[in-house]
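hey so u asked for the seq, here:
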Amino acid sequence: DMFNDISSVNSLQDVFALASEKIENVITISEGNYVVAANHNGMSILPVPSNTEVIINGTITMLPNDFTNYYIVGLRGENIQLHGKGEIVGDKHTHTGTKGEWGMGINLAKCKKVDIYDLTIRDCWGDCIYIGTESTDVRINNCTLDHGRRQGISITSAGIVQIENCVISNVGGTAPEYAIDIEPNKNDSIDSVIIRNVKSIDCKGGFLTWGGAKDCIINKVELYECCVIGATKPDYAFNTSNVIKMVNCTSSKDSKPIVNRCNRFTIL
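ran it, structure tokens below
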């Protein structure tokens, strides 16, 4: 009876509230349309704790708001899976405010052992996926990320990240506007990022590393069989990083990567 009618706004919160990090949880969202809304800045609308598998086969749609930052799905903890044939849809095209760039589709904070696969995340006011706050052992596979306003994927504080077999398209609206941006914040570090067979299609920019913040580190980033089509900013740009490796990556402009202040750069 608790879930006989889940058509009301944020009714999914009642489902997620039953999950506990002390047990193994499986949350299944069946086919259908589900509406969520942020009530304040910084809100994690659907929080996912440790030891939880979330299967999304329906469409979760964000109502318009004017907040600067919120997370439609917020991951925090260990041993988390997020997958399914459904969609997470933000409010990029209907947002009622003009400020901020942190309305995320999926946000990872202090996560360990996370798998995200087979989902579509689109139309986010900020990034489709944000990986930060000392997250580690994160795998993203076979996802479609479309119309992120700021990025497809941002990595700001993480180690051991694998992104494979994804299509990221139409990113644009507020800088940097890249398919994948590896950019630590102040005092943060990023290491062991592998990006394999990821296509950037009609995003403003393709793949970016930027280590410009104070006391930050980008250690090792490797790209294999990636492709950039239709970018207006640089397809591949690597700045202030230790080790960058590119293997069999292509560009529709046939342009060379931009490399600045990188200790070791290899292209094969």
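The mean pLDDT is 96. The longest helix spans residues 12-16.
lmk if thats what u needed
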